[in-house]
Structures are given as structure tokens and as C-alpha cells.
Amino acid sequence: MSPQTPKTPTVKAVVAQMRGEIEAMPEWLRRPVGKASELSQVQKIIKQRQIHTICEEGRCPNRGECYAQKTATFLLMGPTCTRACAFCQVDKGHSPMPLDPEEPQKVAEAVQLLGLRYAVLTSVARDDLPDGGAGWFARTIAQIRILNPHTEVEVLTPDFWGGTGRGGVPVPALPVPAPDGENSGLDELQRQRIRTVVEAKPACYNHNIETVRRLQGPVRRGAKYDRSIDVLRIVKQYDPTIPTKSGLMLGHGETEAEIVEAMIDLRDAKCDRLTLGQYMRPSLEHLPVRKYWTPAEFDRFGSIAREMGFERVRSGPLVRSSYHAGESD
Fold first, then answer.
1. Against a cut of 0.70, is the pTM above it?
2. Is the Cβ–Cβ distance between 205 and 157 less than 8 Å?
3. Over the stretch 212-269, which tens digit does the pLDDT of each residue have?
4. Which residues touch 222 (CB under 8 Å, ≥6 apart)?
5. Which helix (H) or strand (E) holds 274?
6. Contact at 8 Å (CB) between 43 and 50?
7. Less Cβ crowding at N or C end of the chain, within 10 Å?
8. At 304, is the secondary structure helix, strand, or coil?
9. Backbone phi, then psi, for 170, in 5-degree steps?
10. What are 204's strand-pairing partners?
């Protein structure tokens, strides 16, 4: 008797499973979407200029609250990422769209129309670009300051590891981290790219490690824990006055000891600010949630982080990288 071929789940079955996961979500992760008028006002400004926000592309649970406060985190260089992180909602692909030469100006205009005093710039990973997009961050910051001289700009960058290697040879994004020693020579290119952004003088330089050391492989394909820690360390080497920030999304199966270890590693790199939030599965194609950490547990981690010396901490189930980014504790 021949083995049966596994049946592909029907659309109805997939919808039922996803609905079951949503219904099983703890009450503290449920929040109102926000007023339609407030949502549409920001969305109209974004769509008219054909620019992107991580609020929409990443389906952030706080976008209703942030839009009500006329804030948004701009997603530079298109909506398609050259990496394939298993937790992220952003589209993936090896052939992202060409850069829009007017994007820096469009983002600056959106900042002006929204009346932002604090803007956040992030991006997809663009390993196809010679500098990984570092120059695009600097150019956009410069344009924002022309139209909005009193607006502070925070950046949330990729690790700038991909792109072009020695001799102009393209280095593709790898589906899994390369063995130690591979891509030799790219470390200096990474430093140069980070320096480009540092010299633009952002109000804060954010780069997320996303999860603990043990889980980097399955969660962040193409990234490395120490490489991300080094991004923060390099920023401080070039300009110790720029605050640095990083964040973790909890719920991938990490232990409390591993979370504390990650915080220690970040402080060792002189990281100043920290965000801790709950991972919520965007679809059945993404990693499942292994644990829902409680608000009380997030409060405890926040207390531990402050005792370690982080000067600004956001720790809660719905916290995301840019949540209340411009506010002091």
C-alpha cells in the first residue's frame, strides 16, 4: 500500500487555523484599530507621495495610536526586502524596485505636512545596492532638515553587511548566515556604511538584534548576532554622543536567562536604549508564537534593563522599535 500524499490545506482550513490563533491571543494584546478619520489622514499623505511606512508594511498594532498623534515611521527604498527573516511581514524578494530619486524629498514633505517634531526612518535590507542604502539614509535626513530644521530624525538601519564586495563583485544576501571567515573584507565596508549614516548626525541610531543569540538562525536568516551587536559598537566608536538603541521581540522560545544575557551584551556595546515587545505571528507562513509573555514579566524585564544602565526603556507586549520614540522617560 503506497503512502498517501499529504493534502494541501484548503483556504477554509487555513482561515480557521489563523482565526483560532487570533482568538487564543491574550486579552492584553487586543487593542482598537483607531478612528478611521485619523487613519485615513496619514494614509492619504503617504499614498499621495507613493512612499511607504513600516506601520502599514509591517502591520504594526500601534499604528492607530501613532496616526492619531500624527506620527509614522517611514520605510525607505521600497517595500521589498532582500532578506527573508521568518518573523517579518514585509515582502521579500531578490529583485526589489529601483530607488525613487524623489523619495527623500517626498518623505521630507510628508514630515512637514504631518508637523512631526521627531521622525523615524527605517528601511528594508537592500543587499543589491553598492552601499546597502547607507547613502540613502543620509540623503533623506538632509532633505528632512531642509524643510524641517527643528525636526529630530531617528534611524533604524539594517546591518549594512550585504551589497558589493571587493573589486565590485556583488555579494548576494545569504539564506543562512555565512560561516566565519566567509565574505572576508566586507567588515571594513560595513564600517564605512555605518559611518555614512553616523556622519548625518541622527538623533538616535537604532539597530535591532530582534532575538537572543541561540535563535538568530531560525528567526533572522542572513543575519548574525555578533554582527548586529557590532553595528551598535561601531556607531559609538565613530560618535559616542549619538544615543544607540536596540530591541528584541519576545515569544520565539527564548528563556529569561537568554533575554538577560542579550541585554548584558547590548550594554557591553554601550547601547543606551532598549525596546522589548511581544512577537505576534503575521500569517501561517511565519514562525509560530512559542510563548506569550505577560505584562508583569515585561515590567520585570524593564526593571532589570534600567538597573543595568539603559537610559531609556520601553518594555511591554505591544511595544515596537519606534513606539513613543521621541519621548523621554
1. yes
2. yes
3. 999 998 888 778 999 999 999 999 999 999 999 999 999 999 999 999 999 999 999 9
4. 83, 84, 85, 125, 162, 173, 174, 175, 176, 177
5. strand 273-278
6. no
7. N
8. helix
9. -60, 140
10. 154
